[in-house]
Design goal:
Chain lengths: 101, 186
């Protein structure tokens, strides 16, 4: 079913675009981070669709690596948000500008 | 029949993704993201990639999203998303950039997908079934032979991430001494 392949690539592009819009629009650091997760999921979808189309089983392995990196990123990122929250009692990214110079 | 299920799933996925983007409440946004991940797992099942689908549910919807929700509850983020006047232009240009990205992608996909044929996965899986080899065997063999270096590197990455998370989330006073919960309550 090549329809599934082609529409999945479109879906992947859509999810990635929604992720980009989330990163551009949100102020809350956690919402912003969730948009990044959405973009990673879009990349996963593209990997799996290409594996399906080309008949390659390695696509699943690459998805596993993406998930590992996403888990590591979520762990460290959320720890950083906790210490950001300790410093200023909020996590609005536009108001955390101590490195602004 | 499969295509009807597929397009329904497509619509639900986009709906949940828009929910992540448009919800002002962080918890609702996170629950929409769980919805997106479950829909994507169903999508992987439709593409006959069972292992990736289950890992998607267990790791993403199960572990990562619980971590997100846990931190949202821990920080008690009651405030809703707002847009002050000085961020209006950022919003506009960000939106323009994102939509431009989508249209470039869509154009590229249209050119790319002009000559697609039937997907090759079904034939590969039929061949594996004929040789009585489960797909997971092939995947795991590949993982510890061809992909052994990235596999070992991810273990180092996870270790570093765990240590980094502990160091970042730890509470310290000016001299770098640990502050315990008892001291804080007192």
């Amino acid at each position: 079913m090549q329809e599934i392949f082609v529409s999945n690539l479109v879906l992947s592009a859509l999810l990635f675009t929604i992720g980009i819009l989330g990163v551009m629009w949100k102020r809350n650091a956690i919402s912003l981070f969730m948009s990044v997760e959405l973009m990673l999921n879009a990349a996963n979808l593209a990997f799996v669709s290409f594996a399906y189309q080309m008949g390659l089983l390695s696509g699943g392995i690459l998805v596993l690596f993406i998930m590992t990196v996403a888990a590591a990123e979520a762990g460290v990122g959320l720890a950083i948000f906790i210490s950001m929250f300790r410093a200023k009692r909020h996590i609005r990214v536009d108001e955390h500008d101590m490195l602004h110079g | 029949m499969e295509l009807i299920i597929y397009y329904t799933l497509f619509a639900i996925t986009v709906g949940f993704a828009l929910g992540v983007l448009l919800n002002k409440n962080t918890v609702k946004s996170a629950m929409s993201l769980v919805g997106v991940m479950i829909c994507l797992a169903a999508n992987f099942l439709l593409m006959r990639q069972e292992f990736v689908a289950f890992i998607q549910i267990i790791v993403y919807a199960g572990a990562i999203m619980v971590l997100f929700l846990f931190v949202i509850m821990l920080l008690n983020l009651r405030e809703r998303e707002t847009t002050p006047w000085y961020l209006r232009s950022t919003r506009f240009w960000g939106g323009a950039l994102g939509l431009t990205f989508f249209f470039v992608m869509a154009w590229g996909l249209q050119v790319f997908s002009a000559g697609t044929t039937e997907p090759a996965m079904a034939a590969v899986q039929a061949d594996l079934a004929a040789r009585n080899t489960p797909e997971i065997t092939v995947l795991s063999t590949k993982m510890i032979t061809h992909y052994i270096v990235p596999f070992l590197l991810t273990s180092v990455l996870l270790l570093v991430a765990v240590i980094g998370a502990i160091v970042m989330a730890r509470r310290q006073d000016e001299d770098g001494n640990e502050i315990l919960v008892e001291d804080e309550v007192a």
